[in-house]
Amino acid sequence: MNFSYWEYKTWLSEVDFTIIGSGIVGLNCAMRLQQRFPKSKILVLERGMLPNGASTKNAGFACFGSLSEILDDLKTHSEKEVLELVQKRNEGLQLLRKNLGDKTIDYVHNGGYELFTQEDTTLYEECISKRKQINRLLQPVFKEDVFLEKGNIFNFENIQNQYIINQFEGQINTGKMMEALLRKVLILGIKILNHCFVQDIRDLGTSVEIATDDFTFTTNKVMVATNGFASQLGIKQVKPARAQVLITKPIKNLDIKGTFHLDKGYYYFRNIENRILLGGGRNLDIKAEETTKLEQTKLVQDTLEKLLSETILPKTQFEIEHRWSGIMGVGKQKKTIVRQLSDNVFCGVRLGGMGVAIGSLVGMELADLL
Questions:
Q1: Gap between the Cα atoms of 296 and 235, Å rounded
Q2: With CB atoms 3.0 to 4.6 Å apart as the test, which of 21, 148, 269, 346 could cross-link to 226 if both were Cys?
Q3: Does the reported pTM lie above 0.90?
């Protein structure tokens, strides 16, 4: 790229810290670094016009896991590990709300609901029978029962008679959250360059060389916060996981309020401005959804529309207004990867679909590795 002297000196010379990814993790890392090293020059590189992974594309759930998700996690994690996961997610949510303010991010506490289809009898009965056990497990974090039972108050169809309610779950406006984070970062003097696709990172020992699709420069330290795209930078413990989403046009007299989970969290929906936002379905073809392509597939979109018409809005006319996809970072374990990769390169990735909950905390932890 043909940089002027002024451009090079202002943006790309004598950079102390370069953060790759301007999502929740990257921006919180940048703010923490500026707090710790106030005289440092911090640069954030972002591949998209906006944060291009999941930070601006998620459903806005302020959640830490449904009952069936927690039971599923206990099959591959110890009770201690699951408790630590939930505690970290809860701490991250409180940090997000404290940093930005509930009013700024439109935080609403309508509770979370887990639904079970009529075919999900085995899962439903397991959740009902183990609800008290999980409440006891989570008692050290919340000091009272998290999961309660309630009847079908929203008149959904083709589901079991009872919901499992998570009384500590809420929802936010994802766009307003990211707008507030970007505003805070820019006020602090942290620089952001968009449309920068990082192709290679070379730790030279005394500095790091970063090659993008347009230019190459050096920086003292690099913090990788690309989550779902982490494997493209050589972090193989993270796989991309595409989440497809749709939203309806406004629906008159919509009385559904809350965040809702179905099928171990593989489907999720919520109300927003008299609309229903619905996402999920990657379990229909896990391999096909292990991609970084921000596209939609007929299989998933047709299934989401069928769920809307047969279960969520069975007696209501609706139209789909918009569809999109986001890229999460997942792996064999739910625990995030926050570690040093080489002398001058560090990463905070694999958020497992819980970026809203843990992104703020992971960003701080990443900065604190230094």
A1: 26
A2: 21
A3: yes
